[in-house]
């Protein structure tokens, strides 16, 4: 087997399925090793060899009744195994069909059937978990995954925590040993990759609906688990003011916003603005708003949703009419441009001594939003891996188990509803149960006929009760 694996490793290297150098990951970070198993389809002989080798890892082939490859790279491998072993295959769609049955799985199966997963490379395990989640929702039994290469960054552990046993043909360190022995790579490369792997462990992952530590922990405990001083301050103030309410002050006159801030201030954690909708904006507004924030102990968030290249966003953040970096504790940023945008924003904070934080917009609340699938997954990964300037992300569901990251959810009203312009509202309890730490409420408070104070207190109470219930229920 060793000789066979060694030969296989060399073949993979020779067709450039395994590359060493400097590469960008999906979220824009640098990695010294890159696997591109997609090229295997151009080498049918090797592809068959890999499929057969993968199948030798299966403990009890007679017990396997379905095979499912994780899209896309593993699909041809799963197909070959299916044909060779005469075991029917299932395919997970990347997105549910938008018409007809809306199903997420193609292929015929019965509830309770045993389905194994085939995957090319495992890093954090998130792709496998996504597939497992979909299969399990259809009542299939899924307990095993077979993988070509394990990058040894924590994915195996993540899957084991979710009761999925993983077997891989290669682990990256062994693969490098074979290539070193064959003279394909140098000891320096091996050392580089080893160092990279140690420094870049994949974060632990929660599958939607599965309780994780984050949901069990109180805000004050989580304040000690953040890397960003502002996130820590925010969690502390949420606990001490007993509020997880972020007020969206979407009013168009300075005085109206200041009046709202003065009334709601003692009961909110964050006041969120869109300064570019204010018709009579001037610097005095910022001065007075900051004073109210200090007096009532809330943070200021400018929901600017920066979404351009690094150089442009750093100019927009620091310069122009609003000089956002000078006063907004927090800002929102679209991850569309990749991780470099966070570095650029960080660089533009020269001479700003107060702590600053970013919420990455991973998922939006509006109907038909494009923040789905890989985009969403990579946005969360970016928040998990990015610099300590990121305090959390905007989302609609529980997307990360990291207790140090705050999950901010807009689209909240006492009753589930829509606004006729695409906005979709969920009620306070369901968004907190779904994993939100901070809830954004705008018109639920500003459009009320009962006065700001009454509405603010009502949302504050609903949201805080839901949080207390969450940590208490999760602890039992
Ligand atoms: P509303 O009045 O509660 O609908 O206001 C919601 C606020 O949150 C508003 O300022 C939006 O710009 C903001 N928002 C949102 O509604 N949905 C999103 O996905 C994001 C921000 Br990101």
TrEMBL record:
SUPFAM superfamilies: PRTase-like, Ribulose-phoshate binding barrel. One of its GO terms (biological process) is 'de novo' pyrimidine nucleobase biosynthetic process. Its EC number is 2.4.2.10, 4.1.1.23. Keywords: Decarboxylase, Glycosyltransferase, Lyase, Multifunctional enzyme, Pyrimidine biosynthesis, Transferase. It comes from the Eukaryota. GO terms for molecular function: orotate phosphoribosyltransferase activity; orotidine-5'-phosphate decarboxylase activity. Residues 244-458 form the Orotidine 5'-phosphate decarboxylase domain. It holds the Pfam family OMPdecase. Pathway: Pyrimidine metabolism; UMP biosynthesis via de novo pathway; UMP from orotate: step 2/2; Pyrimidine metabolism; UMP biosynthesis via de novo pathway; UMP from orotate: step 1/2. In the C-terminal section; belongs to the OMP decarboxylase family. In the N-terminal section; belongs to the purine/pyrimidine phosphoribosyltransferase family. HAMAP family: PyrE. This is Uridine 5'-monophosphate synthase.
């Amino acid at each position: 087997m060793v000789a066979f694996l060694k030969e296989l490793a060399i073949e993979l290297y020779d067709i450039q399925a395994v590359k060493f150098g400097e590469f960008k990951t999906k979220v824009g970070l640098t990695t010294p090793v890159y696997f591109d198993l997609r090229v295997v389809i151009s080498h049918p002989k090797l592809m068959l060899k890999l499929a057969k080798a993968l199948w030798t890892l299966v403990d009890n082939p007679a017990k396997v009744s379905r095979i499912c490859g994780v899209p896309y790279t593993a699909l041809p491998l799963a197909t070959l195994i299916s044909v060779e072993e005469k075991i029917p295959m299932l395919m997970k769609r990347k997105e549910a069909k938008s018409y007809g049955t809306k199903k997420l799985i193609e292929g015929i199966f019965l509830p309770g059937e045993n389905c194994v997963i085939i995957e090319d490379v495992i890093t954090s395990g998130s792709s496998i978990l996504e597939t497992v989640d979909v299969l399990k929702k259809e009542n299939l039994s899924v307990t095993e995954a077979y993988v070509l290469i394990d990058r040894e960054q924590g994915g195996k552990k993540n899957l084991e925590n979710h009761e999925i046993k993983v077997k891989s043909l290669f682990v990256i360190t062994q693969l490098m040993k074979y290539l070193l022995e064959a003279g394909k790579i140098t000891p320096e490369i091996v050392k580089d990759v080893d160092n990279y792997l140690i420094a870049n462990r994949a974060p632990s992952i929660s599958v939607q609906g599965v309780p994780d530590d984050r949901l069990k922990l109180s805000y004050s405990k989580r304040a000690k688990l953040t890397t960003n001083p502002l996130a820590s301050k925010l969690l502390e103030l949420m606990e001490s003011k007993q509020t997880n309410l972020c007020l969206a002050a979407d009013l168009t006159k300075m005085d109206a916003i200041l009046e709202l801030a003065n009334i709601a201030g003692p009961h909110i954690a964050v006041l969120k603005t869109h300064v570019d909708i204010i018709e009579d904006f001037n610097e005095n507004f910022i001065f007075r708003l900051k004073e109210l924030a200090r007096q009532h102990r809330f943070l200021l968030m400018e929901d600017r949703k920066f979404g351009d290249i690094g150089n442009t966003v750093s100019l927009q953040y620091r310069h122009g009419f609003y000089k956002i970096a000078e006063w907004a504790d927090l800002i929102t940023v679209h991850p569309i441009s990749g991780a470099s945008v966070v570095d650029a924003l960080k660089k533009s904070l020269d001479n700003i001594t107060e702590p600053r934080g970013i919420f990455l917009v991973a998922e939006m609340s509006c109907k038909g939003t494009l923040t789905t699938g890989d985009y969403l997954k990579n946005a969360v990964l970016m928040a998990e891996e990015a610099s300590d300037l990121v305090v959390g992300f905007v989302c609609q569901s529980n997307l990360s188990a990291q207790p140090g990251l705050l999950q901010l959810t807009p689209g909240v009203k006492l009753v589930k509803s829509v606004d006729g312009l695409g906005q979709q509202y969920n009620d306070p309890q369901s968004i907190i149960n779904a994993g939100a730490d901070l809830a954004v409420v705008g018109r639920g408070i500003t459009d009320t006929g009962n006065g700001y104070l009454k509405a603010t207190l009502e949302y504050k109470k609903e949201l805080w009760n839901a949080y207390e219930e969450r940590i208490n229920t999760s602890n039992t």
